[in-house]
Structure formats: structure tokens, C-alpha cells
Write a structure and sequence with these properties.
Helices cover about 40% and strands about 15% of the residues. It is an alpha/beta fold. It has one domain: 3-Layer(aba) Sandwich (Rossmann fold).
């Protein structure tokens, strides 16, 4: 083939490839969500709602008095994740569990001005806003996985509002969001079209993810699967999850751990395959004022899989606080 013809052919193939990449995603249908219902049909008898920073936040409370515990669930979960330990914790004070934006029954705004309500800073602001609305001066933050990341960011920005941290398989060293080089791709119109469809894989793969999070998945009851799937009946859950993905970013927490001098309890299962156990061991070593508890025969969710052992660790930690 002559050089000019080769260049011309290569140019045509490149143009076709670019056209396919530019137009192809729009040819993939994204059907409307099926079987969604108004949030009012999904609430429990003890559900409460409060407006925080313009968002209607779903939460529940147990107990009374001080200290106050605020429970922050992980990715793909909701306050349902704390069902086994919320009541036992209330023996020591007030317990508040809420659904973080994009999860559970908390409102999922689709329009806003300024910063995304699903971004890392908004997640911190929701914690402080919730404390302000409920007239809570200081709290012990109990965060699982990504909820642990939020808890540590609150401690960095508002140490005067945090009494202590309980970090349950906290995601610190990985999983803080898409790398910076990939973000321009996420923000293309093509990905905006496909994003909700990608989010729906959580529904398709959710039960398998839960099994991976447990050391012994044979102990997961149908009620647990149902509890995790329930919020996926809420309108726009797929779009909100995609907005959370777009707003996420690498936390940079690993470089700032020495700044968090508050008392901290690091809890991990010895068989965590979501946030590997060795990462929690490293976290406990790098936090200046942390103690470590490794729970045997437990995965990523020791508060669900081993609640008695979880409560024993927390009780021992509370006895060391001033």
C-alpha cells in the first residue's frame, strides 16, 4: 500500500473510531427505573426526617443523654446496617443513625446550585448540620468503611465537635474516588447518559457484594438482603449514586492521619476482603491515639456479623475515655 493511501485509510479508521466512541453510548437505551415508590411507603415506624442544609435527612434515634453516638454507614448501605448494635449502644447514651446522601431514604436532590450535595465536603457538612439541628455539641462518630472516611474528615475540620472516633474497617488508603486522570471521562455527556445504567449494577450485584463483606455468608438471612435492597425502591436512587460517583475524589487522608489526635478505636474483621485487614492494622499504627481490635471470624461488617464482639470492643474503649 502506498504511504498516502495508508495515511488516508488510517485517518478514516480513526475518524470512525472517534465517531463510535462519541455517538455509540447514546445508542444504548437507559430505560426508566421500574418498581419505584415514594419514600413515604418505605419508612419504618421509628423513622424520622429533618432538613439539614436543604436536604431532608432520614434518621433514627435510640436512648438519651451523653455521650452522643452518630453512626455513619458505608457505601451501598444505609442506617439499616447498624440494626444489631444501635440498641445496645443506647445503654451508654444517645444513638443517632442517619442515611448519608445518595443512600437509604434521605432525599436525593437532582438539581442544586454550587457544590454537589453528594461530594466529600457536603458529607462533612451534613454531619455538622445534623448536630446543629439536633443541638448536639459533641459526639462520638462511629463510621464504617466510607463512613469512617467521613468521620475522619469531620475530625480534621471540626475537632472541637468530636469526642472520639470508632473506625470500623474504615476506607483510608484506597477507594476514595476515581483517580484524577479518569475524571474528565466521567464528566463527558456520554458517561452522563450511561451513568445511571452503571449505577444499577449495584442492584444486580448487591447481594454478591454483601456475601463478600461477610466472613460466613451462610449466616446472612433473607431479611438482611431485603433490608439492603429496600432503599433501591426509592426514586432516582440510580441517578443519585452516579452523582456521588462524579463528586467523589481521593481523600488524601493517609497523609494527614498524624493530625487526628482524638481518641480512636480501630475495629476490623480478620477476614475483611473489602478493606483488607492489613489496612486497618496500618491505620491503628499511624493514628497517634488509637487502639486496635481485630474481631475473629468476621469480615467487613463486624457490627452486623459479630455484634456482641463489636459491643465488647466499644464498651472497653468507652471505659478509657475521660
Amino acid at each position: 500500500m502506498k504511504p498516502n493511501r495508508f495515511i488516508r485509510t488510517a485517518g478514516i479508521l480513526l475518524a470512525i473510531s472517534i465517531l463510535i466512541l462519541a455517538v455509540g453510548p447514546f445508542l444504548i437505551p437507559v430505560p426508566p427505573l421500574e418498581n419505584t415508590v415514594p419514600v413515604e411507603q418505605l419508612v419504618d415506624t421509628d423513622s424520622k426526617f429533618i432538613e439539614v442544609n436543604g436536604i431532608n435527612v432520614h434518621y433514627k434515634t435510640w436512648g438519651e443523654g451523653k455521650p452522643v453516638f452518630i453512626l455513619l454507614h458505608g457505601f451501598g448501605a444505609s442506617l439499616f446496617s447498624w440494626r444489631e448494635v444501635a440498641e445496645p449502644l443506647s445503654q451508654y447514651g444517645t444513638v443517632i443513625a442517619y442515611d448519608r446522601p445518595a443512600f437509604g431514604l434521605t432525599e436525593r436532590p437532582m438539581e442544586w446550585e454550587g457544590e454537589s450535595p453528594y461530594g466529600p465536603q457536603a458529607q462533612v457538612d451534613i454531619v455538622i448540620g445534623l448536630m446543629d439541628e439536633l443541638k448536639i455539641e459533641k459526639a462520638i462518630l462511629v463510621g464504617n468503611s466510607a463512613g469512617g472516611t467521613v468521620s475522619m474528615n469531620v475530625a480534621l475540620q471540626h475537632p472541637e465537635r468530636v469526642e472520639a472516633l470508632v473506625l470500623v474497617d474504615a476506607a483510608v488508603y484506597a477507594g476514595g474516588g476515581a483517580p484524577s486522570w479518569f475524571r474528565p471521562i466521567l464528566n463527558t455527556p456520554q458517561m452522563a447518559h450511561l451513568g445511571p445504567l452503571i449505577s444499577r449494577q449495584l442492584q444486580a450485584q448487591g447481594n454478591e457484594f454483601i456475601r463478600t463483606a461477610w466472613h460466613d455468608p451462610s449466616k446472612i438471612t433473607p431479611d438482611v438482603f431485603e433490608g439492603y435492597q429496600k432503599p433501591l425502591q426509592a426514586e432516582n436512587w440510580d441517578k443519585a449514586l452516579w452523582e456521588l460517583t462524579l463528586a467523589s475524589k481521593e481523600s488524601g487522608l493517609a497523609e494527614r492521619l498524624r493530625e487526628i489526635t482524638l481518641p480512636a478505636l480501630v475495629i476490623t474483621g480478620d477476614d475483611d476482603r473489602i478493606v483488607p485487614t492489613e489496612q486497618s492494622l496500618r491505620l491503628a499504627d499511624e493514628l497517634p491515639n488509637a487502639v486496635l481490635k481485630v474481631i475473629a471470624q468476621s469480615g467487613h461488617l463486624p457490627h452486623e456479623e459479630k455484634p456482641a464482639e463489636f459491643m465488647q470492643a466499644v464498651t472497653e474503649f468507652l471505659s478509657t475515655l475521660p
